[in-house]
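Session log. Operator J.P. requested a structure for one protein chain; no other inputs attached. Running the standard single-chain path with token output.
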Amino acid sequence: MAGKFCVSLTCAKDNSDKATVAFVVANAAVASDKETMVFLSTEGTRLSQKGYADDIREEGFAPLAELMANFAKAGGTIWVCSPCFKKRKLDETKLVTGATIVGGAKLVEFLSAGSPCVTY
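Structure written below.
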């Protein structure tokens, strides 16, 4: 069954449980043949940086870095909120695989096409 699915993530190390579960859900969606996009905003933008998630491990789940890598390998897309990224002075040269910095208009366009969205 084709379709789109969005996971909006506002957390990183400040709530590693939510960050992990968001990518578990994103992996389930992309494995279900959904065009899946994770939108990283506010603190979640920190996950766009290579190496940042390497030490995030929640009991009962695969390590977050592994979940993120598997998501990208499966064809998932990670969009990073541009103003949030800039506010945190993150490095565009250190983006994880599958990540692209975008403005809010891209998110609105994706959601306007009828995509459901869950937020963590």
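Operator note: The helical segments are 16-31, 64-73, 82-87, 104-112.
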